[in-house]
Amino acid sequence: MRWMIGCCGALLFSASLPGLARGLHVDLIDYPRPEANWDRAFDLEAALAREFSALCADTLCEGDYSNYRVMQFRCAVLAARGTVQRCVWVVAASELAVQADTGQVQVDNGRWACTVPLQPGVPVEAFHAALAAPGGLTAPLPGVGHGLFEGLAACLQRQGRVG
């Protein structure tokens, strides 16, 4: 009888392992299940890249480089609550120059990982709805008081990691 209780306990424990392996946090793409938000997350990333390009020429991208690009944008979601906890932009930039006497092309580049100043706990659906609204990429997020671009200019003014 004890072996039966032990086997049932082991079976119940092993059945919960996939949930434990998933962890407390998931990528926004994988909330509420793997790849469930795939289209919305990549549409958001593309929209942010377009908005970044428009803002970059006017204000954000003054510095050592003339070619800035958003490489990725990811957010961590607290899976049990369905709330966005933090987001990070990865921005890369480059500058190329041809040496007249040697013909060599000199490459100067940088990259930045810029956190979005969020108050943890914005519900995923409210996060998506706010960003999908007209002007949502620059409008304040619910419960936060500022938009996704807050702090981005300061981040880009720091020395980019060369590599």
- Fraction of residues in β-strands: 25-35%
Number of helices: 4
Shape: elongated
Helix content: 25-40%
Low-confidence stretches: 7-20
Q: How many strand segments?
A: 5
Major beta-sheet overview: 5 strands, antiparallel
Radius of gyration: 22 Å
Structural class: alpha+beta
SSE series: HEHEEEEHH
Q: What's the overall average pLDDT, rounded? A: 82
Give the N-to-C terminal Cα separation: 63 Å
Summarize the structure.
The chain has helices at residues 2-22, 38-60, 124-132, 152-157, and strands at residues 25-27, 67-78, 83-98, 105-116, 122-123.
Structure notes:
This protein has helices at residues 2-22, 38-60, 124-132, 152-157; strands at residues 25-27, 67-78, 83-98, 105-116, 122-123. The model is unreliable at 7-20 (pLDDT under 50). Strands 1, 2, 3, 4 and 5 form a 5-stranded antiparallel sheet that branches. A hairpin with a 6-residue loop joins strand 3 (83-98) and strand 4. By secondary structure, the chain is α+β, with helices and mostly antiparallel strands. It is elongated, with a radius of gyration of 22 Å. The longest helix has 23 residues, at 38-60.
